[in-house]
Structures are given as structure tokens and as C-alpha cells.
TrEMBL record:
Protein name as annotated: 3-keto-alpha-glucoside-1,2-lyase/3-keto-2-hydroxy-glucal hydratase domain-containing protein
Keyword Transport set for record: no
Gene Ontology molecular function terms on file: hydrolase activity
Signal peptide: 1-19
Lineage, broadest ranks: Bacteria, Pseudomonadati, Planctomycetota, Planctomycetia, Pirellulales
Domain 3-keto-alpha-glucoside-1,2-lyase/3-keto-2-hydroxy-glucal hydratase: 31-230
Listed Pfam families: 3keto-disac_hyd (PF06439)
Species this protein is from: Stieleria marina
Keywords tagged on the record: Signal
This protein's record includes keyword Amino-acid biosynthesis: no
Amino acid sequence: MIRCFCTASVLFFAATLNAQERAFVDGTGPGWVTLDEDDFVRVNGDDNTMTWNEGECLCSGTPIGGTRTAKKYKNFEMVIQWSHQKEAGNSGVFAWVPDKALENLPPNKLPTGGIEIQMLDHGYTDQFEKRSGKKADWFSTNGDIFAVGSSKMKPFPPLSPNGSRSFPSKNLSKGFGQWNHYYIRGINGEVRLWVNGEEVSGGNQCEPAEGYLCLEHEGSPIKFRNIRIRELP
């Protein structure tokens, strides 16, 4: 017979470990600041692309493009909550976007550089496969990270089939209509993502490793709230 003894100290340790694994960085404390409407600059949207109300931003998704921060960032921590308002929604945050990737960007064009931290609703997989007739194996809906255009990044495994994306190690994203929590940390050309409390993806050797942060609008309505950032040395 095998006997199992479970002491109070063991239970406490297990609970503590689980809490650490699912710890949420809420963006409060020294150095953290809230980003609101005045902290963002229109790139190729219109008056209705981003509308703000008491700290919550409703993005219409159109025209396709990006809205950048007023200032550039190098080393930073960022928290942001997001909720797709329609099934199969597509959006994300771009980090370290250079000036040239945004210059004269016409409506319905995405930034041509930066590191994308994707926010993709689970319904996008079925939609893609129905429209294209192809298997949706080159992306996930749980927090991919990848370089865009002229930018570079060495993605952390697990990788997409062509090796260009860091696929999430766990599937933690919630579906449309629910709020998701992203904690993003970018330091010295390395970016890491925590989805709803757990680290899932990332990459290093990013070039450039300084630039704007952009909220992506890609054809579907999404809400953002509690956008907070802390600059690091």
C-alpha cells in the first residue's frame, strides 16, 4: 500500500507556486503610467477608428491600419486588456515600430515594420479555413509574436511551420466578448508575452529595438482598456 501524506506546509507551497505561475501584473506601482487618448496619434485611421470613453477605447477596426503612441519606447513593460466585439476578430499590438514603417501610410495598410503581438479571436481559424480551403496551421489564436516587414526577430519555440512566429506554449486566450489580459515586456531587443497571467511566447535579437507602440485595427471591432506602461533602464 502506498500512503500519501499531505501536510499544511506542502499545500501552502503548492498554492503559492500556482499563484506565481498565474500572477497578473496589473500595472500599478512606481513608474507605471496610464495611456489614454492624448497619448496616441492617428496614423491612417479616421475620426471613428478610435473613440475613447472614460479610459476605454472602442476601435471600429476600419480602415485597416494602426494608431501609434505619441512617444517612442526602448525598454518597457506594458499591460493591456482587450476584448473582440465580433467573432473572428483580428488585432494586436506592434512594438518597436520605426518611423519609416508609418510614413505616408495610406488607409487600409498595416505598418511595414515592428514586432507584432497578435490578438486573434478563436473564430478566425474556422473563417480562414472556410474562405481559403487551406489548413490554418501557420498561425494560432493564443498570442503569436512575429516580426513584420523590414523588422527582424529570432522567435522562441514552439515555432510556426516556417519558423517565423513564436507560437504560444499554452492556449489561454478567451473568446470574443470576453476580456483578455496581456503583459508585454520588451528589454534590449527581447520581447515576451504573458496571456491571462502566464508567459506563452516571445523572441530576441529584435531589430530595431526602439520605436513606437501601435494599436492595430484590422477590420473588426475591438475594445481596449487599462493600457499602462512603465519605461525601464
